[in-house]
Amino acid sequence: MCNQDLWQFVFPKIENYIPEYIDITSATSFEEINQIIISKITSPAILVGFSLGGFSALNFACHYPEKINKLIIVAANAKGLSENELRLRRSTIQFLETHTYKGISNTRVQQFLHTDNRQHKTLINIIKKMDADLGKETLIKQLMATSKRVDITSQLKTIDVPILLIGSKEDALVSHQDILTLKKDLTKGIAVILKNCGHMIPLEKPKELAEIINKYL
Fold this sequence. Notes:
Blueprint: H1 30-40, E1 45-50, H2 52-63, E2 68-74, H3 83-98, H4 106-112, H5 121-145, H6 153-156, E3 163-168, H7 176-185, E4 189-194, H8 201-204, H9 206-216
Parallel strand pairs: 1-2, 2-3, 3-4
């Protein structure tokens, strides 16, 4: 449930490139996400993805490695979803289909942020605004579209694409250890782990993220 607002502090700091945001919220499957990406890029492209977008970028590279120059993956890994996660998604979809969606809860917002940022009104408001702008139907669509998510690590081992993995040591959603493990499996993998940051790296550490991206590019 993120849109271009996620990158508002990062894009202005990117040097020598003009980033183009790719909106994948209309997709109903990873296949559709791949087609959206193809329609928006000029090959070979430098593809940057955050969280679900990060997994989507990795998945795209598995299918179309010839269209990728470099990958930059933020707060994501190559793992699939556990049975517990799938059950939670199914129950969430069922609830949303029969109830009014009142927007992302404060409790859920807190899970995305580092403890130092859980009272940061600007960040909280951005997360809530993105969720509100996209709305209930997009949330249901995203949950359904991305539930067929399998581990693609073995596929990534076979591609010769430079991949920069960026994570956070305190990310409650994506383990930095999983990111470091994935890096070991990649032919051309580099990993950078930030500290004092939660899951929302582009919002919580935009200066540091932009510096890492600029250096890598």
